[in-house]
């Protein structure tokens, strides 16, 4: 542990369980002295999120469905009553109908295209419009993306299109909020076995492929993502904004991996 985040307060959105990327990030921030609040989607998750928050000394656990403007307003109204400012925010939220996270992209329905873009892309912009009002210079925001935004990955389909839009919105938000000294970045995480990922077709195969073909020859953990998130959200990342930072064991730089067997 360290004191990088001592005196800083932040909101973590998208914690579902102890496999969540949000959990890896929350642990790193707490370990660095941050004070945390959490938002969760739906009553079913409340009883999962509350004990996890308690482990990180937080009892500020609030409902928010990012598909609803009223729900986002309610979250920030409550937060404003409790805290006079916000130093950082983590958006670790995505959604698509899992029946469309397999098969062909071309078969994506209009309805699920709109829902996927709404929950996975627009929600970050909607949240930042509220968050900026509580933020002062030196504050930072972070969202989560995936390599399927840049290159074809099997089954990622409409989610890849949504992540491309999310990465573009990170750049536009960086410009808008940069004038007020607020930084906005994304982490492009390698595949990690979480609740959301379990909806993606052949996910075990994708994990194996990443393990065999990345320069580090392993998959990343939620703790790896947490470490990089800490850098981007702390003053160490003070000169970084609009960036999509890959935490993927180097997978995104590989054209063809070196053959490990010496006789081939
Ligand atoms: P997760 O299932 O633990 O987290 C996803 C979260 O999104 C859940 O907490 C869920 O409640 C929340 N959510 C969905 N719809 C919502 C709504 N309408 N309102 C509020 N919250 C809502 O899975 P995760 O893998 O930790 O996902 C976090 C982020 O990381 C997502 O954006 C995901 O796309 C991204 N990501 C995941 C991987 C991976 O391999 N797991 C890789 C790169 C990026």
Structure description:
- One of its GO terms (biological process) is fatty acid biosynthetic process.
- The protein is globular and about 65 Å long.
- It has a single domain (9-250), classed as NAD(P)-binding Rossmann-like Domain (Rossmann fold, 3-Layer(aba) Sandwich), CATH 3.40.50.720.
- The N and C termini lie far apart (45 Å).
- The chain has a seven-stranded parallel beta sheet with strand order 3-2-1-4-5-6-7, sandwiched between helices.
- The chain is 41% helix and 13% strand.
- With 264 residues, the protein is α/β, with parallel strands linked by helices.
- The mean pLDDT is 97.
- It has helices spanning 21-31, 43-55, 69-82, 110-134, 157-178, 203-213, 222-233, and strands at 9-13, 35-40, 61-63, 88-91, 140-145, 183-189, 244-247.
- Bound molecules: nicotinamide-adenine-dinucleotide.
- The site of nicotinamide-adenine-dinucleotide has 27 residues, from helix 1 and strand 5.
